[in-house]
Design brief:
The structure is a homodimer. Chain A is α/β, with parallel strands linked by helices. Chain A has helices at residues 7-22, 26-41, 49-64, 71-94, 98-108, 122-134, 139-151, 164-175, 195-201, 226-234, 242-249, 265-270, and strands at 155-158, 180-184, 208-211, 237-241, 256-261, 278-282. The A-B interface holds A 5-6, 8-10, 12-13, 16, 26, 29-30, 33-34, 37-38, 40-41, 43, 45 and B 5-6, 8-10, 12-13, 16, 26, 29-30, 33-34, 37-38, 40-41, 43, 45.
């Protein structure tokens, strides 16, 4: 997906929010935003938004000497999501369509997205679960995803955010014992999943976890490691979570199902949906 | 009022919105936003937000060769507000406190503010009227304003937006026959009032109208004409409408009452109020 001009105010909003998490020094916050404005002067709209977000967050980390501004937030999100886990596990167990319920819950968890400006808390997550379980998703696309899962021999599951990863675990438990590899970012970026979240959520004790070698808030293939690219090319089914992975991979000709909550007007426009939608989007193949 | 870092995303939002009103050429819109990012690189946070907004809108007018992007919107706002006029006139007539009702309606009209990103329509205006009539405003400040009006010999009334000017007319009719001068901007900027709106609303046939010689969306004294400065210095009471006039004059030691609807989180913070508040603020004297 290309970058829209509407993403520009959003890059500044994200930069300001993150600067304030890292430092109380207003002069430094101002300096960061002015440096971001230099980046925006060189913006390439043909590249997806995470390409610029990547540069913005790298700049903030460099200027504040803080590699992981969202560390505490990520830990809190994992702990919060883990409190939901037993109830969700029960929901799936009691569901007449457990795989579909697990898919819907995995989508619900995508609400935990600090890049999109959502301060996910207990109430917001509860609302997202309720909404995702009821949202009208085409039966055809659900059955295509389920049938792809049941035929796949090598599934690559690209995670998105901390906290959300606990919701991914529920879906992965339904998919097992099929071979699944779970992908995390190579370095910290916003509240995106890294290796430590795979450990904290318990996913690393269920399936193989691979770092993608990149700190982009999405999957920019040219920034990913050869190890990840091998997994990406070998997979016969890819499940990619969230807006960032959608924005960076939606034009790829691979067998990808995107599972996401729509959290901004631009992704809503691009997917012909509305903010708040729970989507399964099948890539062009 | 100083510029807050939160104003930066807002400058880009306004620039994008205005660019889209003037042109469908996406390359030009992109060029405008990149030029705005250069301006932001030079931003002076100690100056009030309309100082930068002034530069942003001047840039857009220059690059698009369109002096008045909001011309049609301003005409539509005046026509819409004029439809409300008879009913509001009646409200004041039937009110046990007609001056207070007129003051509250003048504040209500300040909702018509395209700079603040509000697309004022019939419903939004009706809601604003209802809210302003009921809003808890300190009785002390209302009576101070009324008493200042009753003693004043030379009132300067600094207008803000098209459409809103019809609401100002109702208050001016209550204040007459005292001497009032109504101030409009010197050149078009956003949906701010200019001479043509004073004519269209009927204000110019009631009181003297003065252009301030500036196209800032507020009152930046150093950009105003000597004629305006004479009126400003001679007035023994100033009524200034809206956020832009508040942001640019709130540190002036003149006898100013600011009448405004709070439409953004930053002005809410600065005035220790909430978005949606109907405020009368007395300047430090």
């Amino acid at each position: 997906m290309k970058t829209y001009l509407d993403c520009i105010p959003c890059f500044f909003r994200q930069a300001l929010k993150t600067s304030r998490i890292v430092t109380n020094d207003e002069a430094l916050q101002e300096y960061i935003l002015k440096q971001v404005s230099k980046l925006i002067g060189q913006l390439d709209l043909l590249k997806p938004p995470p390409y610029t977000a990547y540069k913005v967050y790298q700049l903030i980390s460099k200027l504040t000497e803080c590699e992981d501004p969202y560390l505490d937030i990520k830990k809190a999100s994992n702990n919060l999501a883990l409190k939901f886990y037993p109830k969700m596990k029960q929901l799936i167990k009691e569901s007449p369509t457990p795989m579909e319920t697990a898919i819907r819950l995995a989508i619900a968890g995508n609400i935990i997205d600090f890049g999109a400006g959502i301060e996910a808390n207990k109430e917001i997550i509860e609302k997202s679960i309720k909404s995702s379980l009821q949202y009208k998703i085409s039966k055809s696309v659900i059955s295509k995803l389920q049938s792809s899962i049941s035929k796949a021999e090598n599934i690559l599951y690209i995670g998105d955010n901390a906290g959300e990863i606990v919701f991914d675990k529920l879906l992965i438990e339904q998919i097992l014992p099929r071979k699944i590899t779970y992908v995390v970012r190579g370095k910290p970026i916003i509240n995106d999943v890294t290796l430590v979240d795979a450990i904290d959520s318990g996913i690393s004790s269920l399936v193989e976890v691979v770092e993608n070698g990149s700190s982009a808030p999405g999957t920019i293939l040219e920034t990913c490691s050869p190890e990840f690219m091998q997994c990406y090319n070998d997979a016969d089914l890819i499940i990619a979570k969230g807006q960032g992975n959608y924005e960076t991979l939606n034009e790829e000709r691979n067998k990808i199902f995107f599972l996401l909550k729509v959290k901004c007007a631009i992704v809503a426009e691009d997917t012909a949906s509305e903010v708040g939608s729970s989507l399964i989007i099948r890539s062009e193949q």
